[in-house]
Amino acid sequence: MNENQADILIIGGGIIGLATAERLGARHPDKRVILLEKEDTLAAHQTGRNSGVLHSGIYYKPGSLKATNCQRGKQMMEQFCAEQGIPFDICGKVIVAITDEEVPRLQNIYERGQANGVACEIIDKDRLHELEPHAAGVRAIHVPRAGIVDYIKVCARLGQRLEDRGGRIVLHARATALHEHADEVVVESSVGAFHAQQVVNCAGLHADRIARLGGVKPDLQIIPFRGEYYMLKPDARSLCRNLIYPVPDPAFPFLGVHLTRMIDGSVECGPNAVLAFAREGYTKTSLNLGDLAETLGYRGFWHLAHRHWRMGIGEMWRSVSRAAFVRALRRLVPDLRVEDVEPADAGVRAQAVRPDGAMVDDFAIQRANRVVHVCNAPSPAATSALSIGEHVVELLD
User: Fold this and answer.
1) Residue 83: inside a domain
2) Which of 6, 39, 85, 283 lies 20 to 30 Å from 144 when distance is taken between CA atoms?
3) Do 158 and 106 sit in the same domain of this protein?
């Protein structure tokens, strides 16, 4: 077998691709795995710009892939980090009802958490203030097993384990074509052609494009949304002890702006979600005309925009106004001031959208002959990564 031949070829060096390689190594240590990553480092996009939350699984529809993979994936991630010496912290989180009108929605989330087997309890205002002295709210859900970790460190260790097992990571390798034959799959890339018995598409922001390269026409398209963040300045970090979340709007897949203590002690605030003008559009001025034309030419985007235009205007206003952004955060932490925050790096969420404008809320993973396509893996994909990887290996088998 030459250096560009593999039993399994993985496209994408984010946490899903690396976790898939890890589970392949555990189940099939004799198989040779090659991982292609188009950037010069692993975890360069969604994974590397992740808040680092170990999600509990409380939000997700019982029986969905999110629900079934999140708790198992979290247990697997905690075990992996403990074995590999990667710091993590099971710090807990609160989901806060600011007004009495939000309490029924809070109750619905609690019942969903109970159905998913998540350890959680509804707490009153006094108990909330014991946990988060600066948080507002009439009632809250306490989720004691939520946690935080550095997923870049997780990915670095997963990559090292792949190479230690005889696998190969190829950077600067952008997949440009995918040809499936009777006995193999050939993936052409910017650094040459690779031959494999099976391929896994974990390309994240470009997963739908890779699927189309392979002749698959997924019933969705990736629409990029930039998640914009602020950080609390060091002298304001005491305003948030751990994780403070609002009650999410059930009509919208994003959780709303929240405060997240990260594993290094900093506190991240956000995200604000706005349409990105490039699939890798991490700044307000980022523009890729091809990406933007693809978005604007997709009828699912216009259905989505028509359905959520009011919320979209609010997100765009917070994008240009720090004061408006802080006002949204002050619903959760009234003591927060505009001068307490400073801009932080943004991320981009690969949001899969159906032609009718419906956002794909669950993981979307499908097999097409010799190729498995992970076409949609939004949050809590990082938490769930090892469980998703195991699911992908089962599909390969």
Assistant:
1) no
2) 85
3) no
Mean pLDDT, residues 239-261: 87
pLDDT tens digits for 105-158? 999 999 999 999 999 999 999 999 999 999 999 999 999 999 999 999 999 999
Please say if the pLDDT value at position 255 is more than 80.
no
Residue 251 scores a pLDDT above 70: no
**Domain around 140:** 93-144
Write down the residue that tokens 């809250």 correspond to.
140
Look up residue 365 and give its amino acid: I
Q: 314-331 in b/e burial notation, b at 16+ Cβ within 10 A? A: ebeebbeeeeebbebbeb
